């Protein structure tokens, strides 16, 4: 989790903000992925990035946003200064740096930058199996599927990629997704 504050907010204010929002998010079953607060002219911008296994819907984001707004209104954390609260989930391009990020990216297309013996390379694939030491990426070349096991120690950076394809059921099943998740991923957005 990243916590930061702008020039007008002290480290103490950032810690107070985290102590305020942390329990609310935890009680709702969310992980706090990032928290930033900084001035943007007359209004302080407060950005809260949350996630959880199974994802978060828009109605759930609205509900937790209301809870956080009420909690902020009840404090004098920002004094009389107005604030603009943004609550969202991590988007495409977010870095995969913790085990829970990899677990939640299962079946998603990712780009992984490797650093092995001083040599850099990049591979893409769908996140399949994950254990304490490695991630397996699934590669689908015109229906011929293979997995590539990559030690976490060899990963310099990784992020979720924009995926314009609709992966097949067999591909998602090979990534370890259950029937409900496969149906959700294969249903076009309305």
From TrEMBL:
Pfam families documented for this protein: DUF150_C, RimP_N
Superkingdom of source: Bacteria
Keywords from the named record: Cytoplasm, Ribosome biogenesis
Task of the protein: Required for maturation of 30S ribosomal subunits.
PANTHER family linked: RIBOSOME MATURATION FACTOR RIMP
Annotated Ribosome maturation factor RimP C-terminal domain residues: 96-164
Residue ranges annotated for the Ribosome maturation factor RimP N-terminal domain, each copy included: 20-92
HAMAP family to which the protein is assigned, alphabetical: RimP
Organism: Gordonia alkaliphila
Protein's UniProt name: Ribosome maturation factor RimP
SUPFAM superfamilies tied to this protein: YhbC-like, C-terminal domain, YhbC-like, N-terminal domain
Compartmental location: Cytoplasm
Protein family (similarity comment): Belongs to the RimP family.
């Amino acid at each position: 989790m990243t916590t930061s504050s702008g020039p007008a907010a002290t480290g103490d204010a950032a810690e107070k903000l985290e102590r305020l929002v942390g329990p609310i998010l935890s009680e709702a079953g969310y992980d706090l992925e990032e928290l930033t607060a900084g001035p943007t002219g007359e209004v302080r911008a407060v950005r809260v990035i949350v996630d959880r296994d199974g994802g978060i819907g828009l109605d759930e984001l609205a509900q937790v946003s209301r809870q956080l707004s009420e909690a902020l209104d009840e404090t004098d954390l920002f004094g009389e200064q107005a604030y603009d609260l943004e609550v969202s989930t991590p988007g495409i391009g977010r870095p995969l740096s913790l085990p829970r990020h990899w677990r939640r990216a299962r079946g998603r297309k990712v780009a992984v930058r490797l650093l092995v013996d001083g040599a850099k390379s990049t591979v893409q694939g769908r996140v399949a199996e994950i254990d304490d030491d490695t991630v397996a990426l699934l590669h689908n070349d015109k229906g011929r599927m293979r997995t590539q096991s990559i030690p976490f120690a060899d990963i310099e950076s990784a992020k979720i990629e924009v995926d314009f394809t609709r992966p097949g059921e067999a591909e998602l099943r090979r990534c370890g997704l259950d029937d409900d998740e496969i149906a959700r991923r294969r249903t076009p957005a309305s």
